[in-house]
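QUALITY CONTROL LOG
STEP: pairwise intake check
CHECKER ROLE: data steward
CRITERIA: each record must contain a sequence immediately followed by its structure tokens, with no blank fields

ENTRY 1 OF 2
RESULT FIELD BELOW
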Amino acid sequence: MSRKLKITNSAIVLIIMGTAALLRFYHYFEVPFTYDEFSAVLRLNFNSFSELIENGVKLTDTHPAGVQVLMYYWTRLFGIEEWVVKLPFTLFGLGSVYLIYLIGKKWYNQTVGLLSSAFLASLQYTVMYSQIARPYISGLFLVLLTVYFWTNLVKNPERKFYLNSLGFIFSAAACAYNHHFSLLFAAIVGLSGLFFIRREYLVRYIISGVLIFVLYIPHLNIFFYQLNVGGIEDWLGKPSNSFILKYFGFIFNFSVYPGIVTLIIILLGFFFFRTDASIKKESRHRGDLKPLYPYLLFASWFLIPFIIGFLYSRYVQAVLQYSVLIFSFPFLFFVLFGHIKEQKPSINLLMVVGILIVNIYSLTFVRKYYQIFYKSPDREILRDYEKLKSREQNAIYIIDSHPKNTNFYINKYGIDTGFIRQESLSGISELKSILEEQSKTADKLYLGALSSNYQMTIPLILDYFPNLIMQNNYYGATTYIFDKEKKPTSFRDTITYLDFEKGTYAKWNGVKAELITKEISYNGERAYAFSDETEYGPTYKISLDSIMTHKNNFIDITVRARGISEMDGAVLVATLESNGENVYYGGSDFKDYIISDSVGQRWESIHYSMKLSDINLNYKDLMLKVYIWNKNHQHFVVDDIVICRREGNPILYWLVEPIIQPKNQLATK
């Protein structure tokens, strides 16, 4: 006679841990380094601990020394293969999944612990950072370990007080050495204990806090040095007022499905699974903390680091990112699910399986995590280069990537270096010179570029290789292949085209009929001649929202100009205005595009591109305005002013943004 399989909470924990391990170790040997990891790994080649601290941490980093020291000794023992470097952090991630279960069980019940653990097991937030060897998932583990020992101290101080105090001291000190925000969180936890610890244990608890500070004293000189040097505002912008909403989107995989499941469980908790009055009464009778206190505690733990980071970033130095909030975000689940009473294991299993299925679906199919994250921008740029190089010798190859990261993969995979490194070029004029010369014999051009690539690169390439035949999108990078065929291309739409032929300039303002000349033109019969009395040329205005399909678009503006010797001081200008106020200004000097020795004897193409993803578009009714500014009142001629929308990479900023779904929108002719 077969025995009925018994469902237990312990078995559910094993299911959660197994799922967490599967999601983190899936194709583990293919997980590449991120840019942050490269930054850390390439700062490990020192001969001594003192050199590491001075040159690898103090002078070149903004983080505490703990993780860099761990990586230094770990890689000396086991090497710098990607999976080897990541392994301790992946284990930290698995440990975090289990710790949140234990903490939830201690503060509430096993149901709350299981629900919280299921989310930590399957959200991109924790899966991704478990595969990144940086101080985020390690900090989450240390924070949860600190809270675990702290919980034992405040809830049951009579049980192994000194052992739990020792665990609290060392885990909190490790938080301080891990990251400044995990230090902040440990401090918040420590201060919270002053309100929760029983009075007879208060002195011993304060002594524990003093010992944590004593353990951190050796690091104080590094802390104050980094504080004086400043933060990361050269690349990290100040957070907008909508940051918290975007952060919630990031937590729930930028998908409605995890949000719906969360809402269903919350509502079930209120209407069917809610802790009843008798349990609350019994808890108060036993002398436990009042039921409302844990909610206030965990809500404050979630909110205080965010508020401090937000205010510091807005008024001092930008530091707020999703990554630094990972230490406090798990306690959100205690706020969301803390009202749910203990359920039968069968109900727990049903809710946990629902959470895991929905989160895995959104991770895999909505976020396309394994398709996107497993493709390193620097590595894929080189792989696409190798594919084309193997079948096409008569081509120009240009790569714009991190030199040290690129060299790492070149050495690892034995890739040849028969390409032009764009970062080594002095500017747009040198790139134009190379294109002008090599395009005479080359049939194709390959460009592999990071998101930081100079925005006028592609418009300039299109002057010589006008047809895009391949575009591969990666997070943080895009690769392209162009050839010389002149045919319509799908990645650029013309918004407007002004060639000064009769009737073509109806939508342009400031076109002076007396300046239209038939003596010379780039195309057709007419052009526009600037004189010393003409400061501003024709102007075009259009609503930005009417022409962009998504914020990763580019707006490419091109003008043909002649009279080079007299054009010093002419600028192709693009601005954005909101309710008449100028909120963005950019432009290209004509002289930057001059490479010909026969100045004034030929037409040159002048380009300016707006990379919309790098512009603050949080304004109402944005209007794009394009014009030519003859600031030095020179004589020159222009023709064929073209404004185009170029489709950008929809996953360029995938790490911190949803995958972009472009609007179906026709170009404005």
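ENTRY 2 OF 2
RESULT FIELD BELOW
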Amino acid sequence: MKRILFQDTSFRDGFQSIFGARVFTKDFMPAVEAAREAGINHFEAGGGARYQALYQNCGEDAFDMMDEFRRVAGPKARLQTLARGINVVALDAQPRDMIDLHAKMFKKHGMTRIRNFDALNDVNNLIYSGQCIKNAGLEHEVVVTMMELPPGCTGAHDADFYIKTLKDILDAGVPFDSVCFKDASGTSNPHKVYETMKRARALLGPDVELRIHTHDTCGTGISQYVAAIEGGVDGVCLARKPLSGGTSQPDLFSLFHALKGTDYKLALGDSIVDDNINKIMEANNVAVECMKDYEFPPEALQISSDVIFSPMPGGALTANTLMMRETKTFHLYSKVIENMSECVCRGGFATSVTPVSQFYFQQAYVNTVNKNKGLDTWAKMTDGYGKMLLGYFGKTPVEPDPELVKIAEEQLKLPVFSKKYGDISVVDILEPGIPKATKLLQENNLKVTDENIFIVGALETKGGNKGIDFLKGIRKIGVPKKKPAVQAAPAAAAPAPAANTAAMQVAGTSTYRIGLNGQSWDVQVSTLK
């Protein structure tokens, strides 16, 4: 029997894939405690969009959340986060001092391991970030990112390409404790997965921990995992009810069921899942109760086979549909996904995972809106997609379409990165981030701490600094909770109205979360009629 390790991703990627990462900490901690009691000891606990969303949508501090996760999960649990190479947990490339500070802060706040990927599979973006992770005393899980290309596209994203990327990681001397192949869109066909894992195992030898991560967005997640296990992987990422399937990770019990009658068993600490089924079911029920007030978008729960042709990651899909509902453009969603194929085909085949998935989607969205207005499809080049074409995030797997590169140069008024800077790394053109963030904190009369420096550095945007807003108590709450039912006051309890005075009746009650100086409160407001 071979024991297959698993990481429970319910409380990070599950949240991101279903709710755009917008979940209050206090709401799910009982589910973490129940999972611990069920014997689960490896959790994805932060990073990725769960970093930005806490500040920008939940009014919470991500470092406080990680501290609480560690307290509840216990001292022996492996807590893992997700980082994006030179972007770490920001959407833009970060300077070297901020990349180093990221690792130190996540170590300080209880994390064990950081899974570290680059959407372009540019190994140069993994060398320094990986070294910082190791220097901080954390485990480094280095990543090769995967997806399926739209029909007719060739030149990358086959087994040969992935093995070449892995060889480049080994040749570059990137320090790592484990290797993961990450398919954020869940679109890689199972045969390719099997062939890639088999060859990766042969290249790495029997002792290196080899893992795979996928989503169930197009309905093939379990097939991918079975193929990967047969190809030689040691571990997989799984989520649990009600945060599994659809845009999230394949379900724990579904894979447990698929492995019946084989030589493989899912490992649970020192035991196997077979021995803890009832306890895990109890933990699942606790999670269901914790999430009962949250609105599950229908697209997060269904199979979306269109993503096979336009690889939209599960973790980005619901964040984008939430945005489109808020902007009343959701009716364009299917067309945007269709138009995303062209963005992938002509963009150089960077993997559709954050931030590139957003670049693809944003450009496809703009193209769709332009076309609806009768404008030229490429009348507006978005900043992220255009900079990627020009090389400001690293080198894409293949050269992007020269016509689009020219449009990006003209509209963004930027040269191709290599023409201006040569072969140096993107991070080498960025000014140090710590002095800049320190100055900004001082100008706003805010406390200068390592945490605040990192918050300010990671949450800088074109429209201002979301980190400064958060630290000053300016906090926008946008969590997808169900709206409370309208409650009419009982007729018998209503006093008789005085002469010339209208009777006051409760029309409805809404719940809001307010925050001040790091504290938050739920407040109910009743409207009267």
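INTAKE CHECK: passed for both entries
DESCRIPTIVE NOTE, ENTRY 2: The longest strand covers residues 506-516.
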